[in-house]
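haha ok so turns out i had the wrong file open the whole time. this is the CORRECT one, sorry everyone. sequence first:
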Amino acid sequence: MSIATRTVSRNGSASTSAPASKPKERRPAGRRNTGRIALGLVVLVLSVLGAVTLFSSAADRTAVIGVARDVPPGAMVTEADLREVSISAGSGLRVVPASRSAEVVGRTASDGLTAGSLLNPDQLTDGPALPEGMVLVGAVLKGGQFPVGLTIGDSVEIIETTAPDAASAGEPVSRGIGTVTDLSNSTDGQSLRTVSIAVPGENAAAISAAGAAGRVSLVVTAP
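then structure:
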């Protein structure tokens, strides 16, 4: 509230002066600086908490072995069949640590492995896991004796051909159906492939003899 002041002059007349104005308040500069510092501290704390959360989440994961491609029952597991997968630690799943991949390669898939799944140790065995009555035989193949793209797991008809030095060419003989369980390329510089095939036991002797002599051709059939 403004108060007017009255002044009496020497000649007896009175004069009234203008009311005094209230000085304008100013916010201290120190208060503004304090607010900025507090805001900066809040941002810093939130950043640190975010980094700690991300680090804790990453540290709480573990690397395990996953299946990169389908592997049929009875086939040997190769390095190309596997891949590394990161999962949450303590998930309770039966898995194989990625650090043990060297122990997995070369073992046999007792059950079919499905691409995209995690490897379960119960799916592996140390020996050929073949159905009762089935045995493994080997054959050496050259170009023309197998189709391009032959892969592990293919169902094939096994054809025995006539010996190259036979006096008269005979008719090819079908030795039944088998399943390719392993394939490897020749290491002697020749374009040969060695194949392992699961076949019925009663056909094993004839197929093995013809396969060792290079007289076996494979025809891929529907599974």
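The radius of gyration is 42 Å.
again sry for the mixup
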